[in-house]
Structure to design on (171 residues):
């Protein structure tokens, strides 16, 4: 498995993954959005901007999902990355999420000056919590009423990994 930049040929896949409630799963469906926003994003920065980015999760020639990262200010002069993942249903529960998130952590620490990477996941998303822990993240606590999904505010679990927690591969 590997991460790679999104190509124009990947856009229909990315759009389906992000807009189809059956594919997004019970924790990520946030309702309908402008279907052209992903195309405009790709046209603007190829989904690899300074503040936010997306990489395709690929298993050989198969498209398994998408990882994302966005810059979050922590103080006036410091920031961290917040990361997320969307996987196709057939890729879930097979270690793909753990591996993809670990690859994203290694990529961000190797190519940016960030010291912290964090992830938030709904308290009921136990599979994602296990994947984050296996990928090297530490559970920090529960943020009450943090997200709004399916008509109500949801509690989220906050995870993080620090640069000092990760030994980057050589080369």
């Amino acid at each position: 498995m590997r991460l790679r930049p999104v190509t124009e040929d990947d856009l229909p896949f990315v759009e389906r993954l992000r807009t189809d409630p059956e594919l997004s799963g019970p924790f990520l469906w946030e309702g309908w959005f402008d279907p052209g926003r992903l195309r405009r994003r790709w046209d603007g920065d190829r989904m690899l901007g300074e503040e936010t980015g997306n990489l395709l999760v690929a298993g050989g020639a198969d498209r398994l999902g998408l990882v994302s990262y966005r810059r979050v200010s922590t103080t006036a002069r410091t920031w961290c990355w917040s990361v997320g993942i969307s996987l196709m249903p057939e890729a879930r529960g097979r270690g793909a999420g753990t591996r993809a998130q670990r690859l994203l952590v290694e990529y961000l620490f190797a190519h940016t000056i960030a010291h912290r990477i964090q992830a938030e996941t709904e308290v009921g998303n136990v599979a994602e919590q296990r994947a984050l822990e296996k990928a090297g993240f530490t559970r920090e606590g529960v943020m009450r009423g943090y997200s709004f999904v399916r008509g109500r505010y949801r509690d989220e679990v906050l995870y993080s990994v620090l640069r000092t927690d990760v030994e980057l591969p050589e080369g």
User: Anything to note?
Assistant: Strands lie at 2-5, 52-59, 62-73, 79-87, 116-122, 138-149, 152-162. The longest strand covers residues 62-73. Residues 96-111 form the longest helix (16 residues).
